[in-house]
Amino acid sequence: MSTAAAAAEAGQQHATAEAAAAAVPPAAVAAAAAPPFDFAACIPRFLHWVDFCNSGAAAAAADEFLLLTVGGSAVGFLKPSFAERLLQFPDVFRRDGGGLALHPSLATQQQRTAAVAGVLEVLRGEGLIEGWRNELYPAVRAFHDEPAFLIERAAAPHFGIKAYGVHINGYVTLPDGSKELWVARRSRSKPTWPGKLDHIAAGGQPHGLGCMENVVKECEEEASIPTELAARATAVGAVSYTSLQPAGLKRDVLYCFDLELPADFAPRPQDGEVEEFMRMPAWRVAEIMTTSDEYKENCNLVIIDFFFRHGYLTPDMPGYLELLRGLKSGDMS
Length: 333
Known about the structure:
By secondary structure, the chain is of the alpha+beta class. The protein contains 11 helices and 13 strands. The chain has helices at residues 3-22, 43-53, 57-61, 80-86, 109-125, 156-159, 211-223, 227-230, 282-291, 297-309, 320-326; strands at 66-70, 73-78, 93-96, 99-102, 136-139, 149-152, 162-173, 179-186, 197-198, 201-204, 234-245, 248-260, 274-281. Residues 163-303 form the Nudix hydrolase domain.
């Protein structure tokens, strides 16, 4: 590439980032200079997001759902009405104490996967399972267990299986040491959370793919981040929650990654899932989370974790330990 062409491309990247920031509605415009900002005052609202994402915890604890077991090991939670529908497939499901179990004749993972897939095709045809993704999730008690069976992602909350994902905080460190986060606005045509603010990249953790492989894949697909740059992402922990949805229990563990990006790099939408990217000071992101519901709800937890780890939230702030504990409210196995 010629020097002139390189300069032109760099200028266009900078212009893209500036244009994206200018396109943000007033509720999400970052001021040029950071005003004094009280992160301690954000904690009550941050606790609200923890409670919101854990709307299913009480229902699970109160035995409002039926256990789904395989070989005596619990892998899911079923709404009673959904369990009754599954019992209409007696070659696949049967009663087991107060819950349901896969039929013992389904002795292998492959047999169970095929049998459950056949049931799901019927339920999909009835309109009971919506948002089909053609992506398989493992039904497991814990992340490193061998899956009891594999199941279509769209059916995960119906079966109350644990689902895992990777969420990436893309950020830039300024010369003064302050940090700015790259924020994505989800496409308004997406069937889930259209137009909401999101991380630079994130995705469910499918079967057969390593977490770091998934990080690199999602960064490239959603934000056009080159492999060599995405591979710098660092695993920094996880958050978990149990959410109550119309389909059932959404039991999620989100693996958190930090990706420090060069100041002159600007992500670009690629796969149609993101409408635009904006770079915002950390304080402005916290302000949006505190004063609006612009963010996809579970993203708030991952960003709160970022604030803890980068020193924006400190032990002298009231509610610090309660908030820290709340980020891991779900089953972390």
